[in-house]
Amino acid sequence: MGQTALPTGSGRGVMAEARALIALGLPLALGQLAGVAMLTTDTIMLGRVGPEALAAAALGFSVIIVPMMFLIGLAQGAVPLMAYAVGAKRHHMREVRRIVRQTLWATGFVCLPVIALLWNIGVLLRLIGQEEGLAVETERYVRAVSPILLTGTWYVVLRNFMATYDRPRAALVIALLQVPVNGVFIYVLIFGHFGLPALGVVGAGLGSVASGLLALAALAGFVALDRRFRRFHLLGRFWRADRQKLMDVVRLGTPIGLTITFEVLLFSGAAQLMGLIGPLALAAHQIAIQIASVTFMFALGIGQAGAIRIGIAAGSHDAAAITRTGWTALALGCGFMGAMAFVMLFWREDLAGLFLADRTSGGNAAVFTYASGFLVLAALFQVVDAAQVVAVNLLRGLQDARVPMLYAMLCYWGLGFTLSWALAFPFGLGGEGIWWGFVAAVGAFAVLMVRRFAGRHRIPAYRDLIERA
Description:
The protein has helices at residues 14-49, 51-76, 78-88, 92-118, 121-127, 132-145, 148-164, 169-191, 201-225, 243-277, 279-315, 319-346, 348-353, 362-397, 402-424, 430-454, 460-467. By secondary structure, it is mainly α. Helix 10 packs antiparallel against helix 11 (279-315) and helix 10 runs antiparallel to helix 16 (430-454). The radius of gyration is 22 Å and the shape is globular.
Protein backbone atom coordinates (compact mmCIF):
# COMPACT_ATOMS: atom_id res chain seq x y z
CA MET A 1 0.00 0.00 0.00
CA GLY A 2 2.84 2.32 -0.68
CA GLN A 3 0.82 4.23 -3.27
CA THR A 4 -2.76 5.28 -3.56
CA ALA A 5 -5.18 3.22 -5.64
CA LEU A 6 -6.68 6.48 -6.91
CA PRO A 7 -4.41 7.82 -9.67
CA THR A 8 -5.15 11.41 -10.61
CA GLY A 9 -2.38 12.22 -13.04
CA SER A 10 -2.83 14.59 -15.94
CA GLY A 11 -2.88 11.78 -18.46
CA ARG A 12 -6.26 10.52 -17.29
CA GLY A 13 -9.22 11.54 -19.44
CA VAL A 14 -12.64 12.74 -18.42
CA MET A 15 -14.29 9.34 -19.03
CA ALA A 16 -11.71 7.61 -16.87
CA GLU A 17 -12.29 10.23 -14.19
CA ALA A 18 -16.05 9.69 -14.38
CA ARG A 19 -15.59 5.93 -13.98
CA ALA A 20 -13.35 6.46 -10.96
CA LEU A 21 -15.84 8.83 -9.33
CA ILE A 22 -18.72 6.41 -9.89
CA ALA A 23 -16.71 3.43 -8.63
CA LEU A 24 -15.94 5.28 -5.40
CA GLY A 25 -19.13 7.30 -5.04
CA LEU A 26 -21.72 4.57 -5.67
CA PRO A 27 -20.75 2.39 -2.66
CA LEU A 28 -20.75 5.51 -0.47
CA ALA A 29 -24.23 6.42 -1.72
CA LEU A 30 -25.61 2.91 -1.24
CA GLY A 31 -24.17 2.77 2.27
CA GLN A 32 -25.99 5.99 3.13
CA LEU A 33 -29.20 4.59 1.63
CA ALA A 34 -28.85 1.65 4.01
CA GLY A 35 -29.21 4.16 6.84
CA VAL A 36 -32.44 5.43 5.27
CA ALA A 37 -33.66 1.82 5.03
CA MET A 38 -33.02 1.28 8.75
CA LEU A 39 -34.99 4.41 9.63
CA THR A 40 -37.84 3.16 7.42
CA THR A 41 -37.78 -0.19 9.21
CA ASP A 42 -37.98 1.53 12.60
CA THR A 43 -40.94 3.59 11.38
CA ILE A 44 -42.83 0.54 10.12
CA MET A 45 -42.25 -1.42 13.35
CA LEU A 46 -43.24 1.44 15.66
CA GLY A 47 -46.29 2.15 13.52
CA ARG A 48 -47.57 -1.26 14.59
CA VAL A 49 -47.16 -0.32 18.24
CA GLY A 50 -49.35 2.75 17.87
CA PRO A 51 -49.36 6.41 16.89
CA GLU A 52 -48.04 7.52 20.30
CA ALA A 53 -44.91 5.38 19.94
CA LEU A 54 -44.40 6.53 16.37
CA ALA A 55 -44.77 10.19 17.36
CA ALA A 56 -42.30 9.79 20.24
CA ALA A 57 -39.70 8.18 17.98
CA ALA A 58 -40.21 10.83 15.28
CA LEU A 59 -39.79 13.64 17.80
CA GLY A 60 -36.78 11.91 19.34
CA PHE A 61 -35.18 11.48 15.93
CA SER A 62 -35.69 15.18 15.18
CA VAL A 63 -33.81 15.92 18.42
CA ILE A 64 -30.90 13.54 17.90
CA ILE A 65 -30.37 14.18 14.18
CA VAL A 66 -28.93 17.67 14.81
CA PRO A 67 -25.92 16.60 16.94
CA MET A 68 -25.55 13.51 14.74
CA MET A 69 -25.12 15.63 11.62
CA PHE A 70 -22.67 17.94 13.36
CA LEU A 71 -20.60 14.95 14.48
CA ILE A 72 -20.58 13.46 10.99
CA GLY A 73 -19.45 16.84 9.68
CA LEU A 74 -16.70 16.96 12.28
CA ALA A 75 -15.59 13.49 11.16
CA GLN A 76 -15.56 14.70 7.53
CA GLY A 77 -12.80 17.11 8.52
CA ALA A 78 -10.41 14.17 8.37
CA VAL A 79 -11.15 13.36 4.72
CA PRO A 80 -9.20 16.18 2.99
CA LEU A 81 -6.35 15.74 5.47
CA MET A 82 -6.07 12.02 4.77
CA ALA A 83 -6.45 12.50 1.01
CA TYR A 84 -3.75 15.17 0.95
CA ALA A 85 -1.37 12.89 2.87
CA VAL A 86 -2.02 10.05 0.41
CA GLY A 87 -1.44 12.34 -2.57
CA ALA A 88 1.78 13.70 -1.08
CA LYS A 89 3.02 10.09 -0.66
CA ARG A 90 5.54 11.06 2.00
CA HIS A 91 5.02 8.92 5.11
CA HIS A 92 1.31 8.81 4.30
CA MET A 93 0.64 5.71 6.43
CA ARG A 94 1.93 7.42 9.56
CA GLU A 95 0.12 10.66 8.75
CA VAL A 96 -3.20 8.95 8.04
CA ARG A 97 -2.92 6.83 11.19
CA ARG A 98 -2.47 9.97 13.31
CA ILE A 99 -5.38 11.71 11.57
CA VAL A 100 -7.75 8.78 12.12
CA ARG A 101 -6.84 8.45 15.78
CA GLN A 102 -7.30 12.14 16.49
CA THR A 103 -10.62 12.18 14.62
CA LEU A 104 -11.84 9.40 16.89
CA TRP A 105 -10.65 11.49 19.84
CA ALA A 106 -12.32 14.70 18.62
CA THR A 107 -15.69 13.10 17.91
CA GLY A 108 -15.57 11.18 21.19
CA PHE A 109 -14.89 14.37 23.15
CA VAL A 110 -17.99 15.97 21.61
CA CYS A 111 -20.22 12.88 21.91
CA LEU A 112 -19.96 12.37 25.65
CA PRO A 113 -21.22 15.79 26.84
CA VAL A 114 -23.92 15.76 24.13
CA ILE A 115 -25.22 12.42 25.37
CA ALA A 116 -25.22 13.79 28.92
CA LEU A 117 -27.25 16.83 27.81
CA LEU A 118 -29.74 14.68 25.90
CA TRP A 119 -30.34 12.50 28.96
CA ASN A 120 -32.90 14.99 30.30
CA ILE A 121 -34.34 16.20 27.00
CA GLY A 122 -37.84 15.83 28.43
CA VAL A 123 -37.35 19.05 30.41
CA LEU A 124 -36.79 21.03 27.20
CA LEU A 125 -39.69 19.33 25.44
CA ARG A 126 -42.06 20.34 28.23
CA LEU A 127 -40.77 23.92 28.11
CA ILE A 128 -41.63 24.21 24.42
CA GLY A 129 -45.13 22.90 25.02
CA GLN A 130 -45.05 19.18 24.22
CA GLU A 131 -47.62 17.03 26.00
CA GLU A 132 -46.43 15.29 29.16
CA GLY A 133 -46.95 11.77 27.84
CA LEU A 134 -45.16 12.51 24.58
CA ALA A 135 -42.27 14.21 26.40
CA VAL A 136 -41.82 11.18 28.67
CA GLU A 137 -41.83 8.65 25.82
CA THR A 138 -39.52 10.78 23.70
CA GLU A 139 -37.03 11.09 26.55
CA ARG A 140 -37.06 7.31 27.03
CA TYR A 141 -36.36 6.80 23.33
CA VAL A 142 -33.57 9.41 23.22
CA ARG A 143 -31.87 7.91 26.27
CA ALA A 144 -31.93 4.48 24.68
CA VAL A 145 -30.70 5.52 21.24
CA SER A 146 -28.16 8.24 22.20
CA PRO A 147 -25.08 5.92 22.21
CA ILE A 148 -25.53 5.64 18.45
CA LEU A 149 -24.02 9.12 18.24
CA LEU A 150 -20.66 7.59 19.15
CA THR A 151 -20.92 4.26 17.30
CA GLY A 152 -22.34 5.86 14.16
CA THR A 153 -19.74 8.61 14.02
CA TRP A 154 -16.82 6.25 14.58
CA TYR A 155 -18.20 4.00 11.85
CA VAL A 156 -18.11 7.00 9.48
CA VAL A 157 -14.49 7.74 10.48
CA LEU A 158 -13.37 4.21 9.60
CA ARG A 159 -15.46 4.16 6.42
CA ASN A 160 -13.85 7.42 5.28
CA PHE A 161 -10.40 6.00 5.99
CA MET A 162 -11.13 2.99 3.78
CA ALA A 163 -12.68 5.14 1.04
CA THR A 164 -9.55 7.31 0.93
CA TYR A 165 -7.70 4.21 -0.24
CA ASP A 166 -10.45 3.37 -2.77
CA ARG A 167 -11.82 0.47 -0.72
CA PRO A 168 -15.38 1.42 0.30
CA ARG A 169 -17.02 -1.90 -0.51
CA ALA A 170 -16.45 -3.67 2.80
CA ALA A 171 -18.18 -0.80 4.61
CA LEU A 172 -21.04 -1.06 2.11
CA VAL A 173 -21.46 -4.81 2.70
CA ILE A 174 -21.53 -4.27 6.47
CA ALA A 175 -24.05 -1.44 6.11
CA LEU A 176 -26.32 -3.59 3.94
CA LEU A 177 -26.10 -6.50 6.39
CA GLN A 178 -26.92 -4.11 9.22
CA VAL A 179 -30.37 -3.43 7.75
CA PRO A 180 -31.84 -6.93 8.38
CA VAL A 181 -29.89 -7.30 11.64
CA ASN A 182 -31.36 -4.03 12.88
CA GLY A 183 -34.81 -5.21 11.81
CA VAL A 184 -34.50 -8.41 13.83
CA PHE A 185 -33.16 -6.63 16.91
CA ILE A 186 -35.84 -3.98 17.02
CA TYR A 187 -38.60 -6.52 16.27
CA VAL A 188 -37.52 -8.65 19.20
CA LEU A 189 -37.05 -5.74 21.59
CA ILE A 190 -40.08 -3.67 20.60
CA PHE A 191 -42.61 -6.50 20.80
CA GLY A 192 -40.86 -8.85 23.25
CA HIS A 193 -39.80 -12.28 21.96
CA PHE A 194 -37.55 -15.11 23.13
CA GLY A 195 -38.49 -14.40 26.73
CA LEU A 196 -37.61 -10.69 26.57
CA PRO A 197 -40.11 -8.03 27.68
CA ALA A 198 -41.83 -5.78 25.13
CA LEU A 199 -39.96 -2.47 25.41
CA GLY A 200 -41.75 -0.35 22.79
CA VAL A 201 -39.85 2.80 21.84
CA VAL A 202 -37.01 1.90 24.20
CA GLY A 203 -36.62 -1.38 22.33
CA ALA A 204 -36.35 0.51 19.04
CA GLY A 205 -33.55 2.63 20.47
CA LEU A 206 -31.67 -0.27 22.03
CA GLY A 207 -32.00 -2.36 18.87
CA SER A 208 -30.53 0.42 16.75
CA VAL A 209 -27.63 0.85 19.19
CA ALA A 210 -26.94 -2.90 19.25
CA SER A 211 -26.88 -3.19 15.45
CA GLY A 212 -24.70 -0.06 15.23
CA LEU A 213 -22.24 -1.47 17.74
CA LEU A 214 -22.00 -4.73 15.78
CA ALA A 215 -21.42 -2.81 12.54
CA LEU A 216 -18.67 -0.73 14.14
CA ALA A 217 -17.03 -3.86 15.58
CA ALA A 218 -17.20 -5.60 12.19
CA LEU A 219 -15.63 -2.65 10.38
CA ALA A 220 -12.92 -2.24 13.02
CA GLY A 221 -12.23 -5.97 12.78
CA PHE A 222 -11.91 -5.75 9.00
CA VAL A 223 -9.45 -2.86 9.26
CA ALA A 224 -7.44 -4.75 11.89
CA LEU A 225 -7.28 -8.02 9.92
CA ASP A 226 -7.20 -7.01 6.25
CA ARG A 227 -3.68 -7.44 4.88
CA ARG A 228 -3.65 -3.99 3.26
CA PHE A 229 -4.96 -2.15 6.32
CA ARG A 230 -3.53 -4.00 9.30
CA ARG A 231 -0.11 -2.43 8.77
CA PHE A 232 -1.60 0.93 9.75
CA HIS A 233 -2.20 -0.26 13.35
CA LEU A 234 -4.97 2.33 13.56
CA LEU A 235 -6.07 1.47 17.08
CA GLY A 236 -2.65 0.70 18.51
CA ARG A 237 -1.55 3.19 21.19
CA PHE A 238 -4.95 4.79 20.84
CA TRP A 239 -4.31 6.86 23.96
CA ARG A 240 -1.37 8.74 22.41
CA ALA A 241 -2.30 12.39 21.85
CA ASP A 242 -1.28 14.44 18.81
CA ARG A 243 -2.26 18.02 19.49
CA GLN A 244 -1.45 19.34 16.01
CA LYS A 245 -3.48 16.69 14.19
CA LEU A 246 -6.34 17.08 16.67
CA MET A 247 -6.45 20.81 16.01
CA ASP A 248 -6.27 20.25 12.23
CA VAL A 249 -9.30 17.95 12.37
CA VAL A 250 -11.24 20.38 14.56
CA ARG A 251 -10.25 23.35 12.37
CA LEU A 252 -11.67 21.70 9.26
CA GLY A 253 -14.39 19.56 10.81
CA THR A 254 -16.13 22.22 12.90
CA PRO A 255 -17.18 24.47 9.97
CA ILE A 256 -18.17 21.39 7.95
CA GLY A 257 -20.31 20.20 10.86
CA LEU A 258 -21.92 23.63 11.24
CA THR A 259 -22.63 23.84 7.49
CA ILE A 260 -24.46 20.51 7.59
CA THR A 261 -26.26 21.54 10.78
CA PHE A 262 -27.54 24.77 9.22
CA GLU A 263 -29.00 22.74 6.35
CA VAL A 264 -30.60 20.16 8.64
CA LEU A 265 -32.07 22.88 10.84
CA LEU A 266 -33.61 24.56 7.79
CA PHE A 267 -35.49 21.39 6.90
CA SER A 268 -36.46 20.78 10.53
CA GLY A 269 -37.72 24.35 10.84
CA ALA A 270 -39.61 24.04 7.57
CA ALA A 271 -41.33 20.91 8.90
CA GLN A 272 -42.47 22.95 11.89
CA LEU A 273 -43.86 25.60 9.51
CA MET A 274 -45.62 22.90 7.51
CA GLY A 275 -47.16 21.61 10.73
CA LEU A 276 -48.71 25.05 11.27
CA ILE A 277 -50.52 24.65 7.96
CA GLY A 278 -51.95 21.32 9.07
CA PRO A 279 -51.17 17.62 9.62
CA LEU A 280 -52.18 16.67 6.07
CA ALA A 281 -49.73 19.15 4.56
CA LEU A 282 -47.02 17.89 6.93
CA ALA A 283 -47.67 14.26 5.91
CA ALA A 284 -47.43 15.21 2.23
CA HIS A 285 -44.25 17.18 2.91
CA GLN A 286 -42.73 14.11 4.54
CA ILE A 287 -43.51 12.03 1.44
CA ALA A 288 -41.84 14.55 -0.88
CA ILE A 289 -38.80 14.90 1.39
CA GLN A 290 -38.45 11.12 1.68
CA ILE A 291 -38.38 10.73 -2.11
CA ALA A 292 -35.95 13.63 -2.56
CA SER A 293 -33.64 12.26 0.16
CA VAL A 294 -33.21 8.97 -1.70
CA THR A 295 -32.00 10.63 -4.91
CA PHE A 296 -29.88 13.09 -2.91
CA MET A 297 -27.73 10.23 -1.55
CA PHE A 298 -26.32 9.55 -5.01
CA ALA A 299 -25.29 13.18 -5.52
CA LEU A 300 -23.80 13.14 -2.02
CA GLY A 301 -21.81 10.01 -2.83
CA ILE A 302 -20.36 11.64 -5.97
CA GLY A 303 -19.53 14.76 -3.94
CA GLN A 304 -17.74 12.74 -1.27
CA ALA A 305 -15.80 10.82 -3.91
CA GLY A 306 -14.86 14.14 -5.51
CA ALA A 307 -13.58 15.47 -2.18
CA ILE A 308 -11.30 12.47 -1.76
CA ARG A 309 -9.93 12.59 -5.30
CA ILE A 310 -9.40 16.35 -5.21
CA GLY A 311 -7.59 16.03 -1.87
CA ILE A 312 -5.26 13.43 -3.38
CA ALA A 313 -4.65 15.65 -6.42
CA ALA A 314 -3.89 18.58 -4.10
CA GLY A 315 -1.40 16.43 -2.21
CA SER A 316 0.26 15.64 -5.55
CA HIS A 317 0.16 19.40 -6.45
CA ASP A 318 -1.69 18.49 -9.66
CA ALA A 319 -3.85 21.48 -10.59
CA ALA A 320 -5.01 19.87 -13.85
CA ALA A 321 -6.36 16.83 -11.97
CA ILE A 322 -8.22 19.12 -9.55
CA THR A 323 -9.90 20.86 -12.47
CA ARG A 324 -10.82 17.62 -14.23
CA THR A 325 -12.14 15.94 -11.09
CA GLY A 326 -14.18 18.96 -10.04
CA TRP A 327 -16.02 19.61 -13.29
CA THR A 328 -16.53 15.90 -13.96
CA ALA A 329 -18.07 15.42 -10.50
CA LEU A 330 -20.37 18.41 -11.02
CA ALA A 331 -21.45 17.09 -14.42
CA LEU A 332 -22.14 13.62 -13.00
CA GLY A 333 -24.05 14.85 -9.97
CA CYS A 334 -26.18 17.39 -11.85
CA GLY A 335 -26.75 15.01 -14.76
CA PHE A 336 -28.03 12.23 -12.53
CA MET A 337 -30.25 14.55 -10.50
CA GLY A 338 -31.55 16.12 -13.73
CA ALA A 339 -32.72 12.65 -14.79
CA MET A 340 -34.34 12.19 -11.39
CA ALA A 341 -36.06 15.56 -11.77
CA PHE A 342 -37.59 14.28 -15.00
CA VAL A 343 -38.84 11.14 -13.21
CA MET A 344 -40.33 13.19 -10.35
CA LEU A 345 -42.02 15.62 -12.71
CA PHE A 346 -43.68 13.11 -15.00
CA TRP A 347 -44.37 10.28 -12.55
CA ARG A 348 -45.12 12.36 -9.46
CA GLU A 349 -48.58 10.88 -8.92
CA ASP A 350 -47.27 7.31 -9.06
CA LEU A 351 -44.48 8.17 -6.62
CA ALA A 352 -46.84 9.87 -4.17
CA GLY A 353 -49.23 6.94 -4.44
CA LEU A 354 -46.55 4.51 -3.21
CA PHE A 355 -46.91 5.98 0.29
CA LEU A 356 -50.73 5.87 0.42
CA ALA A 357 -52.90 2.77 0.56
CA ASP A 358 -55.88 4.71 -0.84
CA ARG A 359 -55.33 8.03 -2.59
CA THR A 360 -59.03 8.91 -2.98
CA SER A 361 -60.68 8.64 0.44
CA GLY A 362 -60.73 11.03 3.39
CA GLY A 363 -57.51 12.74 4.35
CA ASN A 364 -55.50 10.59 1.95
CA ALA A 365 -56.95 12.47 -1.01
CA ALA A 366 -55.73 15.79 0.39
CA VAL A 367 -52.31 14.32 1.21
CA PHE A 368 -52.04 12.94 -2.33
CA THR A 369 -52.91 16.32 -3.86
CA TYR A 370 -50.43 18.15 -1.64
CA ALA A 371 -47.63 15.61 -2.28
CA SER A 372 -48.12 15.69 -6.07
CA GLY A 373 -47.75 19.48 -6.00
CA PHE A 374 -44.71 19.38 -3.73
CA LEU A 375 -43.00 16.88 -6.05
CA VAL A 376 -43.15 19.40 -8.91
CA LEU A 377 -41.05 21.75 -6.78
CA ALA A 378 -38.90 18.85 -5.58
CA ALA A 379 -38.05 18.21 -9.25
CA LEU A 380 -36.81 21.80 -9.58
CA PHE A 381 -34.91 21.29 -6.34
CA GLN A 382 -32.94 18.28 -7.63
CA VAL A 383 -30.36 19.90 -9.90
CA VAL A 384 -29.51 22.81 -7.59
CA ASP A 385 -29.27 20.36 -4.68
CA ALA A 386 -26.77 18.28 -6.64
CA ALA A 387 -24.75 21.36 -7.57
CA GLN A 388 -24.49 22.56 -3.98
CA VAL A 389 -23.60 19.22 -2.40
CA VAL A 390 -20.98 18.34 -5.03
CA ALA A 391 -19.43 21.80 -5.09
CA VAL A 392 -19.23 22.16 -1.31
CA ASN A 393 -17.54 18.75 -1.08
CA LEU A 394 -15.04 19.75 -3.77
CA LEU A 395 -14.15 22.81 -1.70
CA ARG A 396 -13.77 20.62 1.38
CA GLY A 397 -11.30 18.52 -0.59
CA LEU A 398 -9.30 21.75 -0.96
CA GLN A 399 -9.58 22.29 2.82
CA ASP A 400 -11.84 25.31 2.26
CA ALA A 401 -14.64 25.12 4.83
CA ARG A 402 -15.06 28.38 6.78
CA VAL A 403 -16.38 30.63 4.00
CA PRO A 404 -18.85 27.94 2.79
CA MET A 405 -20.08 27.71 6.39
CA LEU A 406 -20.84 31.45 6.43
CA TYR A 407 -22.58 31.23 3.07
CA ALA A 408 -24.65 28.29 4.37
CA MET A 409 -25.82 30.27 7.38
CA LEU A 410 -26.72 33.22 5.14
CA CYS A 411 -28.50 31.17 2.46
CA TYR A 412 -30.29 28.63 4.63
CA TRP A 413 -31.42 30.95 7.41
CA GLY A 414 -31.05 34.53 6.21
CA LEU A 415 -32.79 33.66 2.93
CA GLY A 416 -34.32 30.18 3.06
CA PHE A 417 -36.25 30.08 6.31
CA THR A 418 -37.30 33.72 6.08
CA LEU A 419 -38.57 33.29 2.52
CA SER A 420 -40.34 30.01 3.35
CA TRP A 421 -42.22 31.67 6.18
CA ALA A 422 -43.05 34.81 4.16
CA LEU A 423 -44.29 32.93 1.10
CA ALA A 424 -46.26 30.41 3.15
CA PHE A 425 -48.10 32.84 5.44
CA PRO A 426 -48.07 36.59 4.58
CA PHE A 427 -48.20 35.80 0.83
CA GLY A 428 -50.61 32.89 1.33
CA LEU A 429 -48.85 30.26 -0.79
CA GLY A 430 -49.02 27.65 1.99
CA GLY A 431 -46.88 24.54 1.65
CA GLU A 432 -45.73 25.40 -1.86
CA GLY A 433 -44.35 28.66 -0.49
CA ILE A 434 -42.22 26.68 1.96
CA TRP A 435 -40.84 24.61 -0.92
CA TRP A 436 -40.10 27.72 -2.98
CA GLY A 437 -38.04 28.87 0.01
CA PHE A 438 -36.06 25.60 -0.24
CA VAL A 439 -35.42 26.09 -3.95
CA ALA A 440 -34.26 29.68 -3.44
CA ALA A 441 -31.97 28.86 -0.49
CA VAL A 442 -30.32 25.81 -2.02
CA GLY A 443 -30.12 27.49 -5.43
CA ALA A 444 -28.35 30.54 -3.99
CA PHE A 445 -25.92 28.32 -2.04
CA ALA A 446 -25.25 26.23 -5.17
CA VAL A 447 -24.39 29.34 -7.22
CA LEU A 448 -22.03 30.58 -4.53
CA MET A 449 -20.31 27.20 -4.15
CA VAL A 450 -19.86 26.57 -7.87
CA ARG A 451 -18.61 30.12 -8.36
CA ARG A 452 -16.14 29.69 -5.49
CA PHE A 453 -14.82 26.44 -6.95
CA ALA A 454 -14.50 28.06 -10.39
CA GLY A 455 -12.47 30.89 -8.81
CA ARG A 456 -10.47 28.60 -6.54
CA HIS A 457 -7.18 30.25 -7.53
CA ARG A 458 -8.22 33.15 -5.32
CA ILE A 459 -8.80 30.91 -2.28
CA PRO A 460 -5.86 31.06 0.17
CA ALA A 461 -6.23 27.36 1.02
CA TYR A 462 -5.90 26.43 -2.65
CA ARG A 463 -2.78 28.55 -3.07
CA ASP A 464 -1.28 26.99 0.04
CA LEU A 465 -1.91 23.48 -1.29
CA ILE A 466 -0.88 24.05 -4.91
CA GLU A 467 1.07 27.19 -5.62
CA ARG A 468 3.35 27.01 -2.58
CA ALA A 469 4.33 23.39 -3.13
